[in-house]
Each structure stands twice: as C-alpha cells, then as structure tokens.
Amino acid sequence: MTVGIVVFPGSNCDRDVRWALEGCLEISTRFLWHEERDLSGLEAVVIPGGFSYGDYLRCGAIARFAPVLEEVKAFAERGGAVLGICNGFQVLTEMGLLPGALTRNEKLHFICEPAELTVQPGQCRWLQGYGADETVTFPIAHGEGRFQCESDQRKALEDGGQVVLRYRQNPNGSVADIAGITNAGGNVLGLMPHPERACDSQTGGADGRRLLASLLG
User: Fold this and answer.
1) Separation CA 136–CA 119 (nearest Å)
2) Residuewise pLDDT in 10s, the chain (217 residues)
3) What's residue 193's pLDDT?
4) Could you count the other beta carbons within 10 Å of the beta carbon of residue 181?
5) Quick one: pLDDT at residue 61?
6) What is the 3-state secondary structure (H, E, C) of the chain?
7) From the CB of residue 113, how many other CB atoms can be counted at a distance below 10 Å?
8) Rounded to an integer, what distance in angstroms lies between the CA atom of residue 20 and that of residue 13?
9) Residues with catalytic function
10) What is the per-residue pLDDT for 150?
C-alpha cells in the first residue's frame, strides 16, 4: 500500500503525516507536489494541514485550482479514499468534495490545544476502527476552523449520517459542534483536528492511530 500526501507551498504537516503513516504504521507514502498529476499506484490520498499558498484570499481558495487536486477529485469520485486534515478540510470544501465552509474562529483567536471528540463512524471508511459515541482526543491547531453551512446542507448531513466527529466542548463556534464530516459515499473525510499528531502515546496520545490504520483493514 502507498498513500499520497499532497504538498503545497505553505504545507507544514506533510511530514507529520508521513511520520505517522511510515513510522507508526509502516505504510509507504509518496509526496505529491501541487503541480503533479500522477496518482498511479496510490490507494489513498491525504491533504495535510498548513497554510497552502499562504492562505491568501481565504484558506484553500487558491489550492483548489492546483493540478494535483484535479486528479484527487477524480480519484475521490471513483471511490478512492481521501482524507483532508485542518487546511486539507478547508481545501475539500473549496473543491466541492464536501459541503460547507471553514471560517474564522468565533473569538478570532488561533487555538492550539487537545480537543475531546465524539465519534459517529457511520459509513465513513476512515473511522471504522471506532465505536459509536466513542470519545477520543485529537489536538487542534487552527485560526479558521469554524464549520458553517446552510440549514438545508446541515439537515442533509445529519440525515445522511455524515456528521462523524463532534467537539464535546466546542472551541471555535462550529455549527452543531461539528469537527468532521464525510461525503455520502464515506470515502472522503474532512476534519479540523489532527489525528496524525495523536499516533504515539509518548507524544500526545494514540487516539488518532486507528483512523490512519483503517487503511490496513
């Protein structure tokens, strides 16, 4: 198995994801520069956190036009597993692979702290290693993590079981405490918290390990 990790100018969690996949789970990875189009041989793609293109305009607004993401979108539409973490979640909404938008935190401050989450795996392939209503802790580190969507979009997400992660104590004002959502097919997951930073009990807990390990199942 090989997992592609997208790299933009401004990405800063690409190596964290590689460390978690290769160092903790022995899953091979390949960096995908933003101008690349070759996704051959990949079984999953991760869009990591950071500040793609410096977050100019708004988070993910420029990244959505990257050549590599044209291929990632086609890959996802074919059922390929795609994970967007933090800035990667912002990018997924800008691409239209997930609904809604990530906006400035309610109190306009950057937040960096552990966050307790409630998991509702549903049909999300990335979360099958967790039980319904299980509580986990992933770190968060964002200034624009407040999830918002239209009321009809929220109803569709709720009715479809696509709200798969919620904050137990909402840190940023996200509607309905939403921390992560999946697409209708369950193969695309976007979340603001960082599972790759929770893969080693000696460096911040290991609750995120099962999310990445789902690729091995």
Assistant:
1) 7
2) 999 999 999 899 999 999 999 999 999 999 999 999 999 999 999 999 998 877 777 777 888 889 999 999 999 999 999 999 999 999 999 999 999 999 999 988 999 999 999 999 999 999 999 999 999 999 999 999 999 999 999 999 999 999 999 999 999 999 999 999 999 999 999 999 999 999 998 776 899 999 999 999 7
3) 98
4) 26
5) 80
6) CEEEEEECCCECCHHHHHHHHHHHHCCEEEEEECCCCCCCCCCEEEECCECHHHHCCCCCCCHHHCHHHHHHHHHHHCCCEEEEECHHHHHHHHHCCCCCEEECCCCCCCEEEEEEEEECCCCCHHHCCCCCCEEEEEEEEECCCEEECCHHHHHHHHHCCCEEEEECCCCCCCHHHEEEEECCCCCEEEECCCHHHCCEHHHCECCCHHHHHHHHC
7) 8
8) 11
9) 86, 194, 196
10) 95
Distances (CA, A) of 60 to 14, 74, 132, 147: 15, 18, 31, 14
Residue 118: C-alpha distances to residues 15, 111, 149 (Å): 27, 19, 20
* Domains defined for the chain, CATH in brackets: 2-212 (3.40.50.880)
Helix axes 67-77, 87-95, angle to 10 degrees: 80
Asked if residues 38 and 30 have their Cβ atoms less than 8 Å apart, the reply is no
Amino acid identity of residue 54, one-letter, is: G
Gap between the Cα atoms of 83 and 42, Å rounded: 13
| Structural tokens at position 111 | 């937040």
